[in-house]
Amino acid sequence: MGRTSRKRRSSLATRMTIASAALLLGGGGLVAVNVYASAHEDSANGQDAGSGTQQTQQTQQVATIDCPDVGAQLSDVPGGARDEVDGELATLDTQITQAYQRLSSTRDAAARDPRFVQNSIMDPLKKNRSTILERIRLEMERRGGQAPDGMNDMAECTAQPKEGEQPPADGGNQGDGSDQGGGDQAGGDQSGGDQAGGDQQQGNGGQAGNGPVADDFADITKVQPNVQKPQNGDNASTGTFTTRCGQNENKKFNTDNLIVAPGVTNGAHHLHDYVGNQDNDAFSSNDDLANAGTSCRNQGDKSTYYWPVVRVQDGSKDFDADKDGGGKEGNVGKILQAQKASIKFVGSPQSEVVAMPKFLRIITGDAKAFTNGTANANAHWSCTGFEDRQLTDKYPLCPDGSKVVRSFAFQSCWDGQNIDSANHRTHVAFADQAGNCPQNFKAIPQLKMRLVYDVQTPTIENGQVKNPFAVDGFPEQLHKPITDHDDFINVFDDQTMRKVVDCINKGDRCT
Length: 511
Prior knowledge:
With about 500 residues, the protein is α+β, with helices and mostly antiparallel strands. Helix content is about 15%, strand content about 20%.
Protein backbone atom coordinates (compact mmCIF):
# COMPACT_ATOMS: atom_id res chain seq x y z
CA MET A 1 0.00 0.00 0.00
CA GLY A 2 2.90 2.37 0.60
CA ARG A 3 4.58 4.25 -2.22
CA THR A 4 8.33 3.82 -2.15
CA SER A 5 9.53 5.78 -5.15
CA ARG A 6 8.69 9.11 -6.70
CA LYS A 7 6.25 8.70 -9.53
CA ARG A 8 6.69 10.33 -12.90
CA ARG A 9 3.95 12.67 -13.97
CA SER A 10 1.50 10.49 -15.87
CA SER A 11 -0.56 11.66 -18.81
CA LEU A 12 -3.54 11.51 -16.50
CA ALA A 13 -1.81 13.73 -13.98
CA THR A 14 -0.90 16.15 -16.77
CA ARG A 15 -4.54 16.34 -17.77
CA MET A 16 -5.42 17.11 -14.19
CA THR A 17 -3.33 20.29 -14.10
CA ILE A 18 -6.17 22.06 -15.90
CA ALA A 19 -8.67 21.36 -13.14
CA SER A 20 -9.90 24.44 -11.36
CA ALA A 21 -12.31 23.27 -8.68
CA ALA A 22 -12.31 19.75 -7.27
CA LEU A 23 -13.74 18.22 -4.15
CA LEU A 24 -11.79 16.41 -1.50
CA LEU A 25 -13.00 12.85 -2.02
CA GLY A 26 -13.71 13.18 -5.71
CA GLY A 27 -16.62 12.92 -8.08
CA GLY A 28 -19.33 14.90 -6.36
CA GLY A 29 -20.21 18.47 -5.85
CA LEU A 30 -22.62 21.32 -5.82
CA VAL A 31 -21.78 24.12 -8.21
CA ALA A 32 -23.24 27.51 -7.45
CA VAL A 33 -23.40 30.43 -9.85
CA ASN A 34 -25.75 33.20 -10.89
CA VAL A 35 -27.80 32.32 -13.96
CA TYR A 36 -31.00 33.58 -15.48
CA ALA A 37 -34.09 31.68 -16.59
CA SER A 38 -37.11 32.80 -18.60
CA ALA A 39 -40.48 32.73 -16.91
CA HIS A 40 -42.50 29.66 -17.90
CA GLU A 41 -45.71 29.84 -19.90
CA ASP A 42 -48.87 30.03 -17.81
CA SER A 43 -51.64 28.54 -19.86
CA ALA A 44 -54.05 28.88 -16.95
CA ASN A 45 -53.88 32.65 -17.41
CA GLY A 46 -54.42 32.37 -21.13
CA GLN A 47 -50.79 32.94 -22.10
CA ASP A 48 -49.11 30.91 -24.79
CA ALA A 49 -46.13 31.15 -27.07
CA GLY A 50 -48.16 32.62 -29.89
CA SER A 51 -50.13 35.20 -27.94
CA GLY A 52 -47.63 37.94 -28.54
CA THR A 53 -47.52 38.64 -24.82
CA GLN A 54 -44.04 39.60 -23.79
CA GLN A 55 -42.58 37.08 -21.39
CA THR A 56 -41.06 38.44 -18.22
CA GLN A 57 -37.54 37.54 -17.27
CA GLN A 58 -37.05 35.92 -13.88
CA THR A 59 -33.68 36.00 -12.22
CA GLN A 60 -32.65 32.85 -10.46
CA GLN A 61 -30.02 34.11 -8.07
CA VAL A 62 -28.10 30.85 -8.03
CA ALA A 63 -28.29 27.62 -10.01
CA THR A 64 -26.58 24.55 -8.65
CA ILE A 65 -25.25 21.40 -10.20
CA ASP A 66 -25.62 18.61 -7.69
CA CYS A 67 -23.60 15.53 -8.62
CA PRO A 68 -23.47 12.22 -6.72
CA ASP A 69 -20.29 11.76 -4.71
CA VAL A 70 -18.65 8.82 -6.43
CA GLY A 71 -15.48 8.74 -4.33
CA ALA A 72 -17.38 8.34 -1.08
CA GLN A 73 -19.05 5.20 -2.43
CA LEU A 74 -15.82 3.44 -3.41
CA SER A 75 -14.90 1.76 -0.15
CA ASP A 76 -13.44 -1.42 -1.69
CA VAL A 77 -11.06 -0.58 -4.54
CA PRO A 78 -8.28 -3.14 -5.22
CA GLY A 79 -4.90 -1.81 -4.18
CA GLY A 80 -3.50 -2.04 -7.69
CA ALA A 81 -6.31 0.10 -9.05
CA ARG A 82 -6.26 2.92 -6.52
CA ASP A 83 -3.91 5.32 -8.25
CA GLU A 84 -5.85 5.12 -11.50
CA VAL A 85 -9.20 5.38 -9.73
CA ASP A 86 -8.01 8.40 -7.74
CA GLY A 87 -7.01 10.04 -11.00
CA GLU A 88 -10.36 9.31 -12.62
CA LEU A 89 -12.16 10.74 -9.60
CA ALA A 90 -10.12 13.90 -10.05
CA THR A 91 -11.29 13.96 -13.68
CA LEU A 92 -14.89 13.86 -12.49
CA ASP A 93 -14.13 16.87 -10.35
CA THR A 94 -12.64 18.65 -13.35
CA GLN A 95 -15.85 18.04 -15.25
CA ILE A 96 -17.85 19.71 -12.47
CA THR A 97 -15.43 22.61 -12.60
CA GLN A 98 -15.89 22.98 -16.35
CA ALA A 99 -19.66 22.92 -15.92
CA TYR A 100 -19.37 25.63 -13.26
CA GLN A 101 -17.25 27.77 -15.57
CA ARG A 102 -19.70 27.31 -18.44
CA LEU A 103 -22.63 28.30 -16.27
CA SER A 104 -20.76 31.37 -15.12
CA SER A 105 -19.93 32.51 -18.63
CA THR A 106 -23.26 31.84 -20.36
CA ARG A 107 -25.76 33.80 -18.31
CA ASP A 108 -27.12 35.71 -21.32
CA ALA A 109 -27.68 32.52 -23.28
CA ALA A 110 -29.47 30.94 -20.32
CA ALA A 111 -31.70 34.01 -20.07
CA ARG A 112 -32.71 33.73 -23.71
CA ASP A 113 -33.27 29.97 -23.75
CA PRO A 114 -34.73 28.14 -20.73
CA ARG A 115 -33.42 24.84 -22.13
CA PHE A 116 -29.88 26.09 -22.57
CA VAL A 117 -28.55 24.82 -19.24
CA GLN A 118 -29.97 21.34 -19.73
CA ASN A 119 -28.96 20.99 -23.38
CA SER A 120 -25.57 22.68 -23.29
CA ILE A 121 -24.32 21.86 -19.80
CA MET A 122 -26.20 19.11 -18.03
CA ASP A 123 -26.52 16.61 -20.88
CA PRO A 124 -22.84 16.85 -21.92
CA LEU A 125 -21.82 16.58 -18.26
CA LYS A 126 -23.79 13.36 -17.88
CA LYS A 127 -22.19 11.93 -21.03
CA ASN A 128 -18.69 12.82 -19.89
CA ARG A 129 -19.25 11.42 -16.41
CA SER A 130 -20.58 8.18 -17.87
CA THR A 131 -17.33 7.72 -19.76
CA ILE A 132 -15.23 8.15 -16.61
CA LEU A 133 -17.48 5.90 -14.53
CA GLU A 134 -17.04 3.17 -17.12
CA ARG A 135 -13.26 3.58 -16.92
CA ILE A 136 -13.43 3.21 -13.15
CA ARG A 137 -15.56 0.08 -13.45
CA LEU A 138 -13.20 -1.51 -15.98
CA GLU A 139 -10.10 -0.69 -13.91
CA MET A 140 -11.61 -2.18 -10.77
CA GLU A 141 -12.68 -5.34 -12.58
CA ARG A 142 -9.30 -5.66 -14.28
CA ARG A 143 -7.72 -5.72 -10.83
CA GLY A 144 -10.16 -8.29 -9.49
CA GLY A 145 -12.62 -5.93 -7.83
CA GLN A 146 -16.23 -5.04 -8.46
CA ALA A 147 -17.82 -1.64 -8.86
CA PRO A 148 -20.71 -0.82 -6.51
CA ASP A 149 -24.23 -1.47 -7.73
CA GLY A 150 -25.84 1.51 -9.36
CA MET A 151 -22.60 3.31 -10.12
CA ASN A 152 -23.78 4.13 -13.64
CA ASP A 153 -26.68 6.05 -12.11
CA MET A 154 -24.15 8.42 -10.56
CA ALA A 155 -23.51 9.97 -13.97
CA GLU A 156 -26.57 12.17 -13.82
CA CYS A 157 -26.39 15.50 -12.04
CA THR A 158 -29.26 17.85 -11.38
CA ALA A 159 -29.50 21.59 -11.97
CA GLN A 160 -31.28 23.35 -9.13
CA PRO A 161 -32.19 27.02 -8.71
CA LYS A 162 -31.27 28.55 -5.40
CA GLU A 163 -34.11 29.41 -3.07
CA GLY A 164 -32.56 30.98 -0.01
CA GLU A 165 -29.39 29.55 1.46
CA GLN A 166 -28.62 25.99 0.34
CA PRO A 167 -28.64 23.63 3.36
CA PRO A 168 -26.37 20.61 3.76
CA ALA A 169 -27.51 17.67 1.67
CA ASP A 170 -29.04 15.80 4.60
CA GLY A 171 -31.11 18.78 5.63
CA GLY A 172 -29.19 19.46 8.82
CA ASN A 173 -27.53 22.72 9.66
CA GLN A 174 -26.09 22.14 13.09
CA GLY A 175 -23.80 19.19 13.71
CA ASP A 176 -23.72 18.08 17.33
CA GLY A 177 -20.20 16.74 16.96
CA SER A 178 -20.72 14.26 19.77
CA ASP A 179 -19.50 11.30 17.76
CA GLN A 180 -16.94 13.11 15.65
CA GLY A 181 -13.95 13.75 17.81
CA GLY A 182 -13.61 11.21 20.54
CA GLY A 183 -15.52 13.27 23.02
CA ASP A 184 -14.07 16.80 23.16
CA GLN A 185 -16.58 18.18 20.72
CA ALA A 186 -19.39 20.63 20.30
CA GLY A 187 -22.93 19.65 21.04
CA GLY A 188 -26.33 21.23 21.22
CA ASP A 189 -27.36 24.46 19.54
CA GLN A 190 -24.54 25.76 17.39
CA SER A 191 -25.77 29.24 16.59
CA GLY A 192 -27.30 30.22 19.88
CA GLY A 193 -30.57 30.80 18.04
CA ASP A 194 -29.48 34.24 16.83
CA GLN A 195 -27.76 34.33 13.48
CA ALA A 196 -25.61 37.30 12.71
CA GLY A 197 -26.21 39.65 9.89
CA GLY A 198 -29.99 39.68 9.40
CA ASP A 199 -31.06 39.27 5.79
CA GLN A 200 -28.88 37.19 3.55
CA GLN A 201 -26.39 38.91 1.33
CA GLN A 202 -27.44 39.04 -2.31
CA GLY A 203 -25.86 36.51 -4.67
CA ASN A 204 -23.11 34.34 -3.28
CA GLY A 205 -21.27 37.16 -1.55
CA GLY A 206 -17.55 37.38 -1.03
CA GLN A 207 -14.72 39.01 -2.91
CA ALA A 208 -14.88 36.45 -5.73
CA GLY A 209 -18.65 36.03 -5.78
CA ASN A 210 -18.59 32.59 -4.15
CA GLY A 211 -19.05 33.37 -0.48
CA PRO A 212 -19.10 33.81 2.38
CA VAL A 213 -22.32 35.68 3.15
CA ALA A 214 -23.50 37.40 6.32
CA ASP A 215 -25.53 34.38 7.36
CA ASP A 216 -22.30 32.35 7.58
CA PHE A 217 -21.34 34.25 10.75
CA ALA A 218 -22.63 34.09 14.33
CA ASP A 219 -21.90 36.12 17.46
CA ILE A 220 -20.00 33.73 19.73
CA THR A 221 -21.28 35.51 22.84
CA LYS A 222 -24.82 34.42 21.97
CA VAL A 223 -23.90 30.73 21.65
CA GLN A 224 -24.59 28.57 24.68
CA PRO A 225 -21.78 26.36 26.08
CA ASN A 226 -22.01 23.05 24.24
CA VAL A 227 -18.74 21.11 24.64
CA GLN A 228 -19.14 17.64 26.13
CA LYS A 229 -16.37 15.34 27.34
CA PRO A 230 -16.63 11.62 28.13
CA GLN A 231 -15.80 10.40 31.60
CA ASN A 232 -12.52 8.51 31.97
CA GLY A 233 -12.83 4.81 32.69
CA ASP A 234 -10.58 2.77 34.97
CA ASN A 235 -8.21 1.93 32.11
CA ALA A 236 -8.03 5.42 30.58
CA SER A 237 -4.75 6.63 29.12
CA THR A 238 -4.47 10.20 30.35
CA GLY A 239 -1.06 11.42 29.21
CA THR A 240 -0.28 13.81 26.36
CA PHE A 241 2.52 14.34 23.87
CA THR A 242 2.96 17.79 22.35
CA THR A 243 5.04 18.39 19.24
CA ARG A 244 6.06 21.92 18.26
CA CYS A 245 6.27 22.43 14.52
CA GLY A 246 5.69 26.17 14.07
CA GLN A 247 3.03 28.12 12.18
CA ASN A 248 4.39 27.64 8.66
CA GLU A 249 7.03 30.33 8.99
CA ASN A 250 8.74 28.59 6.04
CA LYS A 251 5.81 29.54 3.79
CA LYS A 252 5.34 25.96 2.68
CA PHE A 253 2.21 26.08 0.51
CA ASN A 254 0.74 24.08 -2.33
CA THR A 255 -2.62 23.09 -3.78
CA ASP A 256 -1.88 19.35 -3.95
CA ASN A 257 -3.36 16.63 -1.78
CA LEU A 258 -1.03 13.67 -1.42
CA ILE A 259 -3.62 11.57 0.44
CA VAL A 260 -6.59 11.97 -1.86
CA ALA A 261 -5.01 12.80 -5.22
CA PRO A 262 -1.48 11.37 -5.40
CA GLY A 263 0.22 12.19 -8.68
CA VAL A 264 -2.25 14.97 -9.52
CA THR A 265 -1.03 18.56 -9.58
CA ASN A 266 -3.50 20.94 -7.94
CA GLY A 267 -5.51 17.95 -6.74
CA ALA A 268 -6.86 19.91 -3.76
CA HIS A 269 -7.88 23.01 -5.72
CA HIS A 270 -7.28 25.20 -2.69
CA LEU A 271 -4.16 26.29 -0.86
CA HIS A 272 -2.76 24.34 2.10
CA ASP A 273 -0.58 25.44 4.98
CA TYR A 274 2.06 22.82 5.85
CA VAL A 275 4.00 22.27 9.04
CA GLY A 276 6.24 19.37 9.88
CA ASN A 277 7.45 17.52 6.79
CA GLN A 278 9.02 19.80 4.19
CA ASP A 279 8.82 17.47 1.16
CA ASN A 280 5.10 17.15 0.70
CA ASP A 281 3.52 17.44 -2.72
CA ALA A 282 1.43 15.26 -4.99
CA PHE A 283 4.46 13.22 -6.05
CA SER A 284 6.06 12.58 -2.66
CA SER A 285 6.67 8.90 -1.92
CA ASN A 286 6.90 7.41 1.54
CA ASP A 287 10.68 7.36 1.10
CA ASP A 288 10.61 11.06 0.24
CA LEU A 289 8.69 11.79 3.42
CA ALA A 290 10.99 9.67 5.56
CA ASN A 291 14.11 11.38 4.21
CA ALA A 292 12.77 14.93 4.30
CA GLY A 293 13.50 17.74 6.70
CA THR A 294 10.95 18.83 9.26
CA SER A 295 9.91 22.09 10.87
CA CYS A 296 9.25 20.24 14.13
CA ARG A 297 11.69 20.83 16.98
CA ASN A 298 11.75 17.10 17.67
CA GLN A 299 13.53 15.78 14.59
CA GLY A 300 11.99 12.37 15.24
CA ASP A 301 8.69 13.82 14.04
CA LYS A 302 8.71 14.16 10.26
CA SER A 303 4.93 13.86 10.07
CA THR A 304 3.06 16.13 7.72
CA TYR A 305 0.27 18.28 9.09
CA TYR A 306 -1.68 20.36 6.59
CA TRP A 307 -4.90 22.35 6.40
CA PRO A 308 -6.58 24.88 4.08
CA VAL A 309 -5.46 28.44 4.63
CA VAL A 310 -7.71 31.16 6.03
CA ARG A 311 -7.94 34.44 4.14
CA VAL A 312 -9.38 37.88 4.81
CA GLN A 313 -11.41 39.00 1.80
CA ASP A 314 -10.49 42.65 2.07
CA GLY A 315 -9.96 43.31 -1.63
CA SER A 316 -6.24 42.60 -1.51
CA LYS A 317 -4.41 40.05 -3.63
CA ASP A 318 -1.91 37.49 -2.41
CA PHE A 319 0.87 35.69 -4.29
CA ASP A 320 -1.57 33.19 -5.85
CA ALA A 321 -4.16 35.66 -7.12
CA ASP A 322 -3.70 34.44 -10.70
CA LYS A 323 -2.90 30.79 -9.95
CA ASP A 324 -4.78 27.51 -9.89
CA GLY A 325 -6.09 26.81 -6.43
CA GLY A 326 -5.96 30.52 -5.68
CA GLY A 327 -7.66 33.40 -7.42
CA LYS A 328 -8.45 31.36 -10.52
CA GLU A 329 -10.67 29.16 -8.37
CA GLY A 330 -12.32 31.73 -6.16
CA ASN A 331 -9.82 31.64 -3.29
CA VAL A 332 -8.97 35.31 -2.91
CA GLY A 333 -7.82 37.81 -0.34
CA LYS A 334 -4.94 38.05 2.11
CA ILE A 335 -3.62 34.74 3.50
CA LEU A 336 -3.44 34.70 7.28
CA GLN A 337 -0.72 32.89 9.17
CA ALA A 338 -1.89 31.25 12.36
CA GLN A 339 -0.59 33.08 15.41
CA LYS A 340 -0.48 29.78 17.27
CA ALA A 341 -0.56 26.21 16.00
CA SER A 342 -0.64 23.62 18.77
CA ILE A 343 -0.31 19.91 17.95
CA LYS A 344 -1.04 17.46 20.72
CA PHE A 345 -1.62 13.70 20.94
CA VAL A 346 -3.91 12.48 23.70
CA GLY A 347 -5.10 9.13 24.99
CA SER A 348 -8.34 7.14 25.17
CA PRO A 349 -10.95 7.51 27.93
CA GLN A 350 -11.34 3.72 28.02
CA SER A 351 -8.01 2.03 27.28
CA GLU A 352 -4.33 2.31 26.62
CA VAL A 353 -3.27 3.25 23.10
CA VAL A 354 -1.11 1.40 20.60
CA ALA A 355 1.44 2.89 18.22
CA MET A 356 0.28 4.38 14.96
CA PRO A 357 1.73 2.60 11.94
CA LYS A 358 4.24 4.63 10.01
CA PHE A 359 2.71 6.48 7.04
CA LEU A 360 -0.81 6.20 8.44
CA ARG A 361 -2.99 8.73 6.65
CA ILE A 362 -5.95 10.44 8.31
CA ILE A 363 -8.36 13.06 7.00
CA THR A 364 -10.73 14.68 9.46
CA GLY A 365 -13.67 16.80 8.35
CA ASP A 366 -15.15 17.02 4.88
CA ALA A 367 -14.27 19.68 2.33
CA LYS A 368 -17.57 18.81 0.65
CA ALA A 369 -19.78 18.99 3.71
CA PHE A 370 -21.89 21.79 2.22
CA THR A 371 -23.09 19.37 -0.45
CA ASN A 372 -22.55 16.03 1.28
CA GLY A 373 -24.21 16.91 4.57
CA THR A 374 -22.80 16.52 8.04
CA ALA A 375 -21.92 12.81 8.16
CA ASN A 376 -18.17 13.46 7.93
CA ALA A 377 -18.15 17.12 8.94
CA ASN A 378 -15.82 17.87 11.84
CA ALA A 379 -15.35 21.64 11.73
CA HIS A 380 -15.03 23.54 14.99
CA TRP A 381 -14.84 27.33 15.16
CA SER A 382 -14.71 29.45 18.29
CA CYS A 383 -13.00 32.39 19.97
CA THR A 384 -10.39 32.59 22.70
CA GLY A 385 -12.14 32.86 26.04
CA PHE A 386 -15.23 31.11 24.64
CA GLU A 387 -13.93 27.67 23.70
CA ASP A 388 -16.59 25.92 25.78
CA ARG A 389 -18.89 26.82 22.89
CA GLN A 390 -18.16 25.63 19.37
CA LEU A 391 -19.67 26.33 15.96
CA THR A 392 -19.72 23.90 13.04
CA ASP A 393 -21.60 25.74 10.29
CA LYS A 394 -20.87 29.34 11.30
CA TYR A 395 -17.75 31.45 11.50
CA PRO A 396 -17.47 33.18 14.89
CA LEU A 397 -17.80 36.89 15.42
CA CYS A 398 -15.43 37.42 18.33
CA PRO A 399 -15.65 40.30 20.82
CA ASP A 400 -12.83 42.80 21.28
CA GLY A 401 -9.68 41.18 22.64
CA SER A 402 -10.73 37.67 21.53
CA LYS A 403 -9.19 35.75 18.63
CA VAL A 404 -10.57 33.22 16.16
CA VAL A 405 -9.87 29.55 16.94
CA ARG A 406 -10.06 26.56 14.59
CA SER A 407 -9.79 23.19 16.27
CA PHE A 408 -9.63 19.63 15.01
CA ALA A 409 -9.94 16.28 16.77
CA PHE A 410 -8.85 13.41 14.53
CA GLN A 411 -10.13 9.86 14.46
CA SER A 412 -8.66 7.87 17.36
CA CYS A 413 -9.37 4.26 16.34
CA TRP A 414 -7.44 2.23 13.75
CA ASP A 415 -8.42 -1.04 12.05
CA GLY A 416 -5.07 -2.58 12.97
CA GLN A 417 -4.10 -3.36 9.38
CA ASN A 418 -4.18 -0.53 6.85
CA ILE A 419 -2.45 2.83 6.56
CA ASP A 420 -5.11 4.07 4.13
CA SER A 421 -8.37 2.95 2.54
CA ALA A 422 -9.99 3.43 -0.84
CA ASN A 423 -12.23 6.27 0.36
CA HIS A 424 -9.51 7.42 2.83
CA ARG A 425 -11.84 6.99 5.80
CA THR A 426 -12.80 3.42 6.64
CA HIS A 427 -9.39 2.35 7.98
CA VAL A 428 -9.86 4.74 10.92
CA ALA A 429 -12.87 5.66 13.03
CA PHE A 430 -14.05 7.88 15.83
CA ALA A 431 -14.69 6.46 19.27
CA ASP A 432 -18.28 6.50 20.50
CA GLN A 433 -19.59 8.99 23.04
CA ALA A 434 -18.17 6.91 25.89
CA GLY A 435 -14.75 6.75 24.21
CA ASN A 436 -14.95 3.13 23.00
CA CYS A 437 -13.54 2.12 19.62
CA PRO A 438 -15.62 0.03 17.20
CA GLN A 439 -15.22 -3.73 17.32
CA ASN A 440 -11.84 -4.92 15.97
CA PHE A 441 -10.44 -1.37 16.04
CA LYS A 442 -7.58 -0.31 18.31
CA ALA A 443 -7.18 2.95 20.19
CA ILE A 444 -4.29 5.07 18.88
CA PRO A 445 -2.97 8.44 20.04
CA GLN A 446 -5.57 11.00 19.06
CA LEU A 447 -4.25 14.03 17.23
CA LYS A 448 -5.75 17.34 18.34
CA MET A 449 -4.87 20.62 16.68
CA ARG A 450 -5.69 24.19 17.64
CA LEU A 451 -5.05 27.14 15.32
CA VAL A 452 -5.44 30.73 16.58
CA TYR A 453 -5.80 33.72 14.25
CA ASP A 454 -5.58 37.40 15.07
CA VAL A 455 -8.13 38.76 12.62
CA GLN A 456 -10.36 41.80 12.79
CA THR A 457 -14.00 40.91 13.33
CA PRO A 458 -16.00 41.39 10.12
CA THR A 459 -18.75 44.01 10.14
CA ILE A 460 -22.29 43.15 9.12
CA GLU A 461 -24.76 45.81 8.07
CA ASN A 462 -28.04 45.44 6.22
CA GLY A 463 -27.39 41.80 5.56
CA GLN A 464 -23.98 42.46 4.01
CA VAL A 465 -20.66 41.31 5.47
CA LYS A 466 -17.59 43.48 4.99
CA ASN A 467 -14.01 42.15 5.08
CA PRO A 468 -15.03 38.59 5.98
CA PHE A 469 -12.54 35.87 6.72
CA ALA A 470 -13.07 32.41 5.28
CA VAL A 471 -11.38 29.07 4.86
CA ASP A 472 -10.08 28.19 1.41
CA GLY A 473 -12.21 25.70 -0.44
CA PHE A 474 -13.67 24.58 -3.72
CA PRO A 475 -15.67 27.39 -5.38
CA GLU A 476 -18.88 25.37 -5.44
CA GLN A 477 -18.68 24.98 -1.65
CA LEU A 478 -19.11 28.76 -1.22
CA HIS A 479 -16.45 28.98 1.51
CA LYS A 480 -18.86 27.53 4.06
CA PRO A 481 -17.30 27.06 7.51
CA ILE A 482 -18.64 23.51 7.75
CA THR A 483 -16.22 22.48 4.98
CA ASP A 484 -13.16 22.98 7.19
CA HIS A 485 -10.88 19.92 7.36
CA ASP A 486 -7.38 18.80 8.27
CA ASP A 487 -4.92 16.17 7.03
CA PHE A 488 -2.16 14.13 8.67
CA ILE A 489 0.43 11.56 7.58
CA ASN A 490 2.35 9.88 10.41
CA VAL A 491 6.11 10.00 9.83
CA PHE A 492 7.31 9.65 13.44
CA ASP A 493 10.37 7.45 13.66
CA ASP A 494 9.88 4.28 15.69
CA GLN A 495 11.70 5.52 18.77
CA THR A 496 9.72 8.74 18.97
CA MET A 497 6.42 6.95 18.41
CA ARG A 498 7.25 4.60 21.29
CA LYS A 499 7.82 7.68 23.46
CA VAL A 500 4.45 9.10 22.40
CA VAL A 501 2.69 5.87 23.39
CA ASP A 502 4.57 5.52 26.67
CA CYS A 503 3.88 9.10 27.73
CA ILE A 504 0.18 8.77 27.01
CA ASN A 505 -0.25 5.37 28.64
CA LYS A 506 1.72 6.40 31.76
CA GLY A 507 -0.23 9.63 32.23
CA ASP A 508 2.81 11.85 31.62
CA ARG A 509 2.91 15.26 29.94
CA CYS A 510 5.65 15.13 27.31
CA THR A 511 6.96 17.39 24.59
